[in-house]
Design a protein that fits this description.
The chain contains 7 helices and no strands. By secondary structure, the protein is mainly alpha-helical. The longest helix has 29 residues.
Length: 148
Amino acid sequence: MSLWDWTLEVYCLPGVPEATLDLQDRHGQNTSFLLWAIWAEGPSAEALAGGAAAAKAWDATVLKPIREVRRTLKAAFPPVDDGAREALREEVKAAELRAERVLMETLETLAPASSGGHPALESLRAASAAWGSPAPDEALARLARALV
């Protein structure tokens, strides 16, 4: 199963959206990168380093600016018509989702599914450390628990 298809499947599990958003918003992690590490069951240190570099560049250049626009468009923006603003927000949301998919497709080329053989929490710890600013273990464990 592709990383994207797997992600769509697990994102529906109770607690996964909340855990990933917490890791993203409160702890500065990239959820696509973390989910890739779990899907690949702990990519090698070399693959993690390459993935972190690619994800950081994509995050800074593409994802964060799109996300900021989407979040800005959530509130009323007088005198802009609410219907027009909300329609634009949905288009920006679709672009953000597409940008996440492009990143995941890129990460997938660096390490295939089940290539590492490590459990989810171990994979998350390694990925979070490779990101450069590790998230608290409990936040990582919350995501790992939600995936079972």
